[in-house]
Protein backbone atom coordinates (compact mmCIF):
# COMPACT_ATOMS: atom_id res chain seq x y z
CA UNK A 1 0.00 0.00 0.00
CA UNK A 2 1.24 3.50 -0.88
CA UNK A 3 2.09 5.56 2.21
CA UNK A 4 0.44 8.99 2.22
CA UNK A 5 0.75 11.06 5.39
CA UNK A 6 -0.62 14.43 4.28
CA UNK A 7 -3.42 15.69 2.07
CA UNK A 8 -5.54 18.78 1.44
CA UNK A 9 -9.32 18.75 1.37
CA UNK A 10 -12.20 21.12 0.84
CA UNK A 11 -15.01 20.09 3.17
CA UNK A 12 -18.59 21.27 2.62
CA UNK A 13 -21.41 20.66 5.08
CA UNK A 14 -24.96 20.33 3.81
CA UNK A 15 -27.26 23.33 3.39
CA UNK A 16 -30.36 23.57 5.52
CA UNK A 17 -33.66 22.89 3.79
CA UNK A 18 -36.06 25.75 3.02
CA UNK A 19 -39.17 26.47 5.01
CA UNK A 20 -42.41 26.83 3.03
CA UNK A 21 -45.72 28.66 3.13
CA UNK A 22 -48.76 26.37 3.23
CA UNK A 23 -52.29 26.47 4.66
CA UNK A 24 -54.51 23.88 6.24
CA UNK A 25 -57.25 22.66 3.92
CA UNK A 26 -58.96 20.02 6.00
CA UNK A 27 -62.46 19.21 7.12
CA UNK A 28 -63.34 20.36 10.64
CA UNK A 29 -60.69 23.13 10.41
CA UNK A 30 -62.84 25.83 8.83
CA UNK A 31 -60.48 28.62 9.91
CA UNK A 32 -57.50 26.90 8.32
CA UNK A 33 -54.24 28.36 9.53
CA UNK A 34 -50.54 28.16 8.62
CA UNK A 35 -49.23 24.67 7.88
CA UNK A 36 -45.86 25.26 6.22
CA UNK A 37 -43.14 23.06 7.70
CA UNK A 38 -39.54 24.01 8.40
CA UNK A 39 -36.55 22.71 6.46
CA UNK A 40 -34.28 19.99 7.79
CA UNK A 41 -30.77 20.67 9.05
CA UNK A 42 -27.89 20.09 6.64
CA UNK A 43 -25.55 17.19 7.29
CA UNK A 44 -22.32 17.71 9.23
CA UNK A 45 -18.87 16.67 8.05
CA UNK A 46 -17.34 14.58 10.83
CA UNK A 47 -13.78 13.28 11.19
CA UNK A 48 -13.37 9.92 12.92
CA UNK A 49 -10.09 8.42 14.15
CA UNK A 50 -10.03 4.75 13.16
CA UNK A 51 -7.38 2.25 14.22
CA UNK A 52 -7.97 0.32 10.98
CA UNK A 53 -6.62 3.24 8.94
CA UNK A 54 -2.85 3.54 8.60
CA UNK A 55 -2.48 6.11 5.81
CA UNK A 56 -4.35 9.03 4.22
CA UNK A 57 -4.24 7.33 0.82
CA UNK A 58 -8.03 6.97 0.59
CA UNK A 59 -8.38 10.77 0.82
CA UNK A 60 -5.55 11.79 -1.49
CA UNK A 61 -7.76 12.08 -4.57
CA UNK A 62 -10.91 13.25 -2.74
CA UNK A 63 -10.36 16.97 -3.19
CA UNK A 64 -13.92 17.92 -2.21
CA UNK A 65 -16.08 16.05 0.29
CA UNK A 66 -19.71 17.05 0.90
CA UNK A 67 -22.44 16.16 3.33
CA UNK A 68 -26.02 16.06 2.04
CA UNK A 69 -28.50 18.93 2.23
CA UNK A 70 -31.57 19.00 4.43
CA UNK A 71 -34.95 18.54 2.76
CA UNK A 72 -37.46 21.36 2.41
CA UNK A 73 -40.42 21.59 4.77
CA UNK A 74 -43.69 19.80 4.00
CA UNK A 75 -47.18 21.35 3.64
CA UNK A 76 -48.64 19.46 6.62
CA UNK A 77 -46.52 21.23 9.26
CA UNK A 78 -43.91 18.49 8.92
CA UNK A 79 -40.24 19.40 8.93
CA UNK A 80 -37.98 18.26 6.14
CA UNK A 81 -35.61 15.40 6.81
CA UNK A 82 -32.15 16.30 8.09
CA UNK A 83 -29.25 15.83 5.71
CA UNK A 84 -27.09 12.78 6.25
CA UNK A 85 -23.81 13.39 8.06
CA UNK A 86 -20.62 12.59 6.16
CA UNK A 87 -18.10 10.60 8.21
CA UNK A 88 -14.44 10.67 7.15
CA UNK A 89 -12.21 7.99 8.64
CA UNK A 90 -8.61 8.98 9.31
CA UNK A 91 -5.70 7.23 11.04
CA UNK A 92 -5.12 7.76 14.73
CA UNK A 93 -2.54 10.53 15.05
CA UNK A 94 -3.99 12.77 12.33
CA UNK A 95 -3.60 16.50 12.97
CA UNK A 96 -6.02 18.80 11.16
CA UNK A 97 -4.92 22.32 10.18
CA UNK A 98 -6.94 25.24 8.85
CA UNK A 99 -5.45 25.78 5.40
CA UNK A 100 -6.06 29.54 5.54
CA UNK A 101 -4.64 30.29 9.00
CA UNK A 102 -2.40 27.24 9.54
CA UNK A 103 -3.93 26.85 13.01
CA UNK A 104 -4.46 23.40 14.49
CA UNK A 105 -8.18 22.64 14.57
CA UNK A 106 -8.04 19.20 16.13
CA UNK A 107 -5.58 16.43 16.95
CA UNK A 108 -7.21 13.01 16.61
CA UNK A 109 -5.26 10.71 18.91
CA UNK A 110 -7.83 8.23 20.24
CA UNK A 111 -9.63 5.42 18.48
CA UNK A 112 -13.23 6.38 17.57
CA UNK A 113 -12.64 10.00 18.55
CA UNK A 114 -15.02 12.17 16.51
CA UNK A 115 -14.91 15.85 15.63
CA UNK A 116 -17.45 17.93 13.69
CA UNK A 117 -15.19 19.82 11.30
CA UNK A 118 -18.03 21.47 9.32
CA UNK A 119 -21.49 22.11 10.73
CA UNK A 120 -24.55 21.73 8.53
CA UNK A 121 -26.75 24.77 7.95
CA UNK A 122 -29.91 25.29 9.97
CA UNK A 123 -33.19 24.67 8.22
CA UNK A 124 -35.32 27.69 7.36
CA UNK A 125 -38.61 28.09 9.21
CA UNK A 126 -41.97 27.61 7.52
CA UNK A 127 -44.94 29.88 8.14
CA UNK A 128 -46.34 27.54 10.81
CA UNK A 129 -43.33 28.43 12.99
CA UNK A 130 -44.20 32.15 12.84
CA UNK A 131 -47.78 31.81 14.08
CA UNK A 132 -48.48 33.70 17.32
CA UNK A 133 -51.39 35.23 19.20
CA UNK A 134 -50.90 38.47 17.28
CA UNK A 135 -49.95 36.94 13.93
CA UNK A 136 -52.54 34.32 13.08
CA UNK A 137 -51.85 33.97 9.35
CA UNK A 138 -48.18 34.77 8.71
CA UNK A 139 -46.95 34.95 5.14
CA UNK A 140 -43.43 34.41 6.45
CA UNK A 141 -40.82 31.77 5.66
CA UNK A 142 -37.04 31.42 5.54
CA UNK A 143 -34.52 29.73 3.32
CA UNK A 144 -32.06 27.30 4.89
CA UNK A 145 -28.60 28.41 5.99
CA UNK A 146 -25.62 27.43 3.91
CA UNK A 147 -23.44 24.68 5.35
CA UNK A 148 -20.00 25.52 6.65
CA UNK A 149 -17.13 25.30 4.15
CA UNK A 150 -13.52 24.76 5.24
CA UNK A 151 -10.25 24.12 3.48
CA UNK A 152 -8.10 21.89 5.67
CA UNK A 153 -4.77 20.10 5.63
CA UNK A 154 -4.48 16.68 7.22
CA UNK A 155 -1.09 15.51 8.49
CA UNK A 156 -0.50 12.09 9.96
CA UNK A 157 1.96 12.07 12.86
CA UNK A 158 2.38 8.61 14.27
CA UNK A 159 1.69 8.15 17.97
CA UNK A 160 5.08 6.71 18.80
CA UNK A 161 6.64 7.15 22.23
CA UNK A 162 10.20 6.53 21.06
CA UNK A 163 11.67 7.54 17.71
CA UNK A 164 14.81 6.00 16.22
CA UNK A 165 16.65 8.51 14.02
CA UNK A 166 19.92 8.41 12.18
CA UNK A 167 21.61 8.16 8.81
CA UNK A 168 20.40 5.67 6.21
CA UNK A 169 21.98 2.27 6.84
CA UNK A 170 22.58 3.04 10.53
CA UNK A 171 20.75 -0.17 11.39
CA UNK A 172 17.48 1.35 12.61
CA UNK A 173 15.29 -1.33 11.02
CA UNK A 174 17.46 -4.10 12.44
CA UNK A 175 17.28 -2.55 15.89
CA UNK A 176 13.49 -2.19 15.92
CA UNK A 177 13.11 -5.77 14.67
CA UNK A 178 15.22 -7.01 17.61
CA UNK A 179 13.44 -4.87 20.20
CA UNK A 180 9.86 -5.37 19.07
CA UNK A 181 7.42 -7.37 17.00
CA UNK A 182 7.98 -5.23 13.90
CA UNK A 183 9.09 -6.93 10.68
CA UNK A 184 10.61 -4.20 8.52
CA UNK A 185 12.37 -4.72 5.23
CA UNK A 186 16.10 -5.01 5.99
CA UNK A 187 18.92 -4.83 3.45
CA UNK A 188 22.48 -3.55 3.22
CA UNK A 189 21.78 -0.42 1.20
CA UNK A 190 20.57 3.09 1.93
CA UNK A 191 16.89 4.07 2.12
CA UNK A 192 15.68 0.49 2.57
CA UNK A 193 12.97 1.88 4.86
CA UNK A 194 10.68 4.16 2.86
CA UNK A 195 7.92 4.60 5.45
CA UNK A 196 7.93 4.85 9.27
CA UNK A 197 7.86 1.41 10.89
CA UNK A 198 6.15 0.96 14.25
CA UNK A 199 6.88 -1.72 16.80
CA UNK A 200 5.51 -2.48 20.27
CA UNK A 201 8.05 -3.05 23.05
CA UNK A 202 7.00 -4.50 26.42
CA UNK A 203 8.79 -4.39 29.75
CA UNK A 204 7.32 -5.34 33.13
CA UNK A 205 3.74 -5.14 31.80
CA UNK A 206 4.38 -1.70 30.32
CA UNK A 207 4.32 -0.92 26.63
CA UNK A 208 5.93 1.67 24.42
CA UNK A 209 5.60 2.28 20.70
CA UNK A 210 8.94 2.56 18.89
CA UNK A 211 9.15 4.17 15.44
CA UNK A 212 11.86 3.55 12.86
CA UNK A 213 12.04 6.89 11.03
CA UNK A 214 13.36 6.64 7.43
CA UNK A 215 16.98 7.69 7.15
CA UNK A 216 17.95 11.34 7.34
CA UNK A 217 20.65 12.94 5.24
CA UNK A 218 22.25 16.37 5.23
CA UNK A 219 19.68 19.09 4.35
CA UNK A 220 16.79 16.70 5.00
CA UNK A 221 14.95 19.55 6.75
CA UNK A 222 15.06 21.47 3.46
CA UNK A 223 13.52 18.64 1.49
CA UNK A 224 16.50 16.52 0.47
CA UNK A 225 16.28 12.75 0.61
CA UNK A 226 13.37 11.19 2.50
CA UNK A 227 13.79 12.74 5.92
CA UNK A 228 11.80 15.94 5.40
CA UNK A 229 8.64 13.98 4.67
CA UNK A 230 8.92 11.97 7.87
CA UNK A 231 10.45 14.28 10.46
CA UNK A 232 6.92 15.26 11.54
CA UNK A 233 6.48 11.73 12.90
CA UNK A 234 9.22 12.47 15.44
CA UNK A 235 7.27 15.42 16.88
CA UNK A 236 5.11 13.26 19.13
CA UNK A 237 7.97 11.11 20.45
CA UNK A 238 8.99 11.80 24.03
CA UNK A 239 12.33 10.00 23.65
CA UNK A 240 14.68 9.78 20.67
CA UNK A 241 17.33 7.16 20.00
CA UNK A 242 20.07 8.65 17.85
CA UNK A 243 21.60 5.59 16.21
CA UNK A 244 25.05 5.88 14.65
CA UNK A 245 26.86 3.19 12.71
CA UNK A 246 30.42 2.54 13.86
CA UNK A 247 31.25 0.74 10.61
CA UNK A 248 33.99 2.80 8.89
CA UNK A 249 32.44 2.01 5.49
CA UNK A 250 29.22 3.88 6.43
CA UNK A 251 30.82 7.27 7.23
CA UNK A 252 33.92 9.23 6.32
CA UNK A 253 33.81 10.77 9.79
CA UNK A 254 31.63 9.42 12.59
CA UNK A 255 31.64 12.74 14.48
CA UNK A 256 30.43 14.60 11.39
CA UNK A 257 27.69 12.00 11.01
CA UNK A 258 26.48 12.72 14.54
CA UNK A 259 26.57 16.50 14.14
CA UNK A 260 24.81 16.51 10.76
CA UNK A 261 21.84 14.59 12.12
CA UNK A 262 21.63 16.92 15.12
CA UNK A 263 21.75 19.90 12.77
CA UNK A 264 18.87 18.55 10.68
CA UNK A 265 16.74 17.94 13.76
CA UNK A 266 17.43 21.47 14.98
CA UNK A 267 16.71 23.05 11.59
CA UNK A 268 13.37 21.28 11.43
CA UNK A 269 12.39 22.26 14.97
CA UNK A 270 14.26 23.24 18.12
CA UNK A 271 11.73 21.07 19.97
CA UNK A 272 13.29 17.94 18.50
CA UNK A 273 16.76 18.55 19.89
CA UNK A 274 15.26 19.45 23.26
CA UNK A 275 13.74 15.98 23.61
CA UNK A 276 15.34 13.35 25.82
CA UNK A 277 17.82 11.51 23.65
CA UNK A 278 19.93 8.38 23.89
CA UNK A 279 22.97 8.23 21.64
CA UNK A 280 23.64 4.63 20.62
CA UNK A 281 26.63 3.27 18.70
CA UNK A 282 25.56 0.39 16.44
CA UNK A 283 27.46 -2.19 14.38
CA UNK A 284 30.12 -2.70 17.03
CA UNK A 285 30.76 -6.10 15.40
CA UNK A 286 32.25 -4.40 12.30
CA UNK A 287 35.99 -4.21 11.72
CA UNK A 288 37.30 -0.80 12.78
CA UNK A 289 34.18 -0.07 14.88
CA UNK A 290 36.07 0.17 18.18
CA UNK A 291 38.32 2.95 16.86
CA UNK A 292 35.28 4.93 15.71
CA UNK A 293 33.52 4.32 19.01
CA UNK A 294 36.47 5.57 21.05
CA UNK A 295 36.68 8.65 18.87
CA UNK A 296 33.03 9.67 19.24
CA UNK A 297 32.85 8.68 22.91
CA UNK A 298 35.71 11.04 23.68
CA UNK A 299 34.05 13.79 21.63
CA UNK A 300 30.66 13.40 23.31
CA UNK A 301 32.19 13.17 26.79
CA UNK A 302 33.26 16.79 26.40
CA UNK A 303 29.57 17.63 25.90
CA UNK A 304 28.60 15.49 28.90
CA UNK A 305 26.74 13.11 26.58
CA UNK A 306 26.82 9.38 27.15
CA UNK A 307 26.95 6.88 24.27
CA UNK A 308 26.27 3.16 24.56
CA UNK A 309 27.63 0.46 22.20
CA UNK A 310 25.38 -2.28 20.72
CA UNK A 311 25.33 -4.76 17.87
CA UNK A 312 21.70 -4.92 16.73
CA UNK A 313 22.31 -7.58 14.09
CA UNK A 314 23.65 -9.95 16.76
CA UNK A 315 20.87 -9.06 19.18
CA UNK A 316 23.42 -7.58 21.57
CA UNK A 317 21.51 -4.50 22.77
CA UNK A 318 22.54 -4.61 26.43
CA UNK A 319 20.18 -2.79 28.78
CA UNK A 320 18.93 -0.41 26.08
CA UNK A 321 15.25 -1.24 26.68
CA UNK A 322 15.57 -0.59 30.43
CA UNK A 323 17.25 2.74 29.79
CA UNK A 324 14.59 3.80 27.29
CA UNK A 325 11.71 2.96 29.63
CA UNK A 326 13.37 4.72 32.55
CA UNK A 327 14.07 7.81 30.49
CA UNK A 328 10.52 7.83 29.12
CA UNK A 329 9.01 7.81 32.60
CA UNK A 330 11.24 10.72 33.64
CA UNK A 331 10.09 12.84 30.70
CA UNK A 332 6.45 12.78 31.71
CA UNK A 333 4.81 14.93 34.30
CA UNK A 334 3.36 12.14 36.39
CA UNK A 335 1.65 14.64 38.69
CA UNK A 336 -0.88 15.29 35.93
CA UNK A 337 -1.15 11.69 34.83
CA UNK A 338 -0.93 8.74 37.15
CA UNK A 339 -0.20 6.47 34.22
CA UNK A 340 2.66 7.73 32.03
CA UNK A 341 2.01 4.93 29.56
CA UNK A 342 -1.53 6.07 28.75
CA UNK A 343 -2.86 7.53 25.51
CA UNK A 344 -1.85 11.16 24.83
CA UNK A 345 -4.33 13.88 25.73
CA UNK A 346 -6.67 15.24 23.09
CA UNK A 347 -5.98 18.62 21.52
CA UNK A 348 -9.12 20.26 20.21
CA UNK A 349 -9.97 23.78 19.16
CA UNK A 350 -13.59 23.96 20.26
CA UNK A 351 -15.87 26.27 18.30
CA UNK A 352 -19.48 26.41 17.22
CA UNK A 353 -20.62 27.58 13.81
CA UNK A 354 -24.10 29.08 13.72
CA UNK A 355 -24.90 31.25 10.71
CA UNK A 356 -25.80 34.63 12.20
CA UNK A 357 -23.91 34.17 15.50
CA UNK A 358 -20.67 33.55 13.59
CA UNK A 359 -20.86 37.15 12.23
CA UNK A 360 -22.26 39.05 15.23
CA UNK A 361 -19.30 41.43 15.39
CA UNK A 362 -19.15 42.15 11.66
CA UNK A 363 -19.07 45.95 11.06
CA UNK A 364 -20.99 47.80 8.37
CA UNK A 365 -19.03 48.90 5.30
CA UNK A 366 -20.57 52.08 3.83
CA UNK A 367 -19.30 53.63 0.58
CA UNK A 368 -20.64 56.78 -1.10
CA UNK A 369 -21.29 56.19 -4.79
CA UNK A 370 -22.12 59.60 -6.21
CA UNK A 371 -24.07 62.43 -4.61
CA UNK A 372 -27.21 60.58 -3.55
CA UNK A 373 -26.23 56.91 -3.69
CA UNK A 374 -24.77 54.69 -0.95
CA UNK A 375 -23.47 51.15 -1.09
CA UNK A 376 -23.78 49.24 2.18
CA UNK A 377 -22.42 45.78 2.91
CA UNK A 378 -21.70 43.44 5.80
CA UNK A 379 -21.68 39.72 6.36
CA UNK A 380 -24.74 40.06 8.58
CA UNK A 381 -26.72 41.86 5.90
CA UNK A 382 -25.71 39.23 3.35
CA UNK A 383 -26.84 36.51 5.78
CA UNK A 384 -30.33 37.98 6.17
CA UNK A 385 -30.76 38.75 2.48
CA UNK A 386 -30.05 35.09 1.76
CA UNK A 387 -32.23 33.97 4.66
CA UNK A 388 -35.37 36.04 3.95
CA UNK A 389 -36.60 35.86 0.34
CA UNK A 390 -38.41 39.01 -0.79
CA UNK A 391 -41.38 37.17 -2.23
CA UNK A 392 -44.13 38.15 0.24
CA UNK A 393 -45.10 41.45 1.83
CA UNK A 394 -44.57 39.99 5.31
CA UNK A 395 -41.06 38.86 4.38
CA UNK A 396 -40.20 42.26 2.91
CA UNK A 397 -41.41 43.94 6.11
CA UNK A 398 -39.36 41.55 8.26
CA UNK A 399 -36.23 42.14 6.18
CA UNK A 400 -36.70 45.89 6.59
CA UNK A 401 -36.85 45.40 10.35
CA UNK A 402 -33.58 43.46 10.23
CA UNK A 403 -31.91 46.22 8.20
CA UNK A 404 -33.06 48.83 10.73
CA UNK A 405 -31.95 46.69 13.70
CA UNK A 406 -28.48 46.35 12.19
CA UNK A 407 -28.30 50.16 12.18
CA UNK A 408 -28.00 50.87 8.46
CA UNK A 409 -30.15 54.03 8.34
CA UNK A 410 -28.70 55.47 11.54
CA UNK A 411 -25.15 55.10 10.23
CA UNK A 412 -26.07 56.55 6.83
CA UNK A 413 -27.73 59.60 8.37
CA UNK A 414 -24.69 60.15 10.59
CA UNK A 415 -22.60 60.22 7.41
CA UNK A 416 -24.83 62.83 5.73
CA UNK A 417 -27.36 60.70 3.85
CA UNK A 418 -30.69 62.42 3.14
CA UNK A 419 -34.27 61.20 2.65
CA UNK A 420 -34.84 59.66 -0.79
CA UNK A 421 -31.14 58.86 -1.20
CA UNK A 422 -30.60 55.44 -2.76
CA UNK A 423 -29.21 52.59 -0.64
CA UNK A 424 -27.73 49.55 -2.41
CA UNK A 425 -27.61 46.34 -0.37
CA UNK A 426 -26.79 42.99 -2.00
CA UNK A 427 -27.75 44.41 -5.44
CA UNK A 428 -31.15 45.58 -4.16
CA UNK A 429 -31.95 49.31 -4.18
CA UNK A 430 -33.99 51.13 -1.53
CA UNK A 431 -34.88 54.73 -0.70
CA UNK A 432 -34.17 56.27 2.69
CA UNK A 433 -37.47 57.15 4.37
CA UNK A 434 -38.33 60.75 5.03
Automatic annotation (TrEMBL):
Coiled coil: none
Lineage top rank: taxon: Bacteria
Ranges of residues in domain Obg: 1-159
Similarity comment: family membership: Belongs to the TRAFAC class OBG-HflX-like GTPase superfamily. OBG GTPase family.
Domain OCT: 356-434
Enzyme kind, highest EC tier: hydrolase
Any one cellular-component term (Gene Ontology): cytoplasm
Biological source species: Mycoplasma bradburyae
Biological processes, Gene Ontology terms: ribosome biogenesis
Start and end residues of each OBG-type G domain: 160-330
Primary role: An essential GTPase which binds GTP, GDP and possibly (p)ppGpp with moderate affinity, with high nucleotide exchange rates and a fairly low GTP hydrolysis rate. Plays a role in control of the cell cycle, stress response, ribosome biogenesis and in those bacteria that undergo differentiation, in morphogenesis control.
Compartments it resides in: Cytoplasm
Protein name: GTPase Obg
Listed cofactors: Mg(2+)
UniProt xrefs under CDD domains: Obg
PANTHER family cross-referenced by the UniProt entry: DEVELOPMENTALLY REGULATED GTP-BINDING PROTEIN-RELATED, MITOCHONDRIAL RIBOSOME-ASSOCIATED GTPASE 2
UniProt keyword terms in alphabetical order: Cytoplasm, GTP-binding, Hydrolase, Magnesium, Metal-binding, Nucleotide-binding
Gene: obgE
Binding positions for GTP per the UniProt entry: 166-173, 191-195, 212-215, 282-285, 311-313
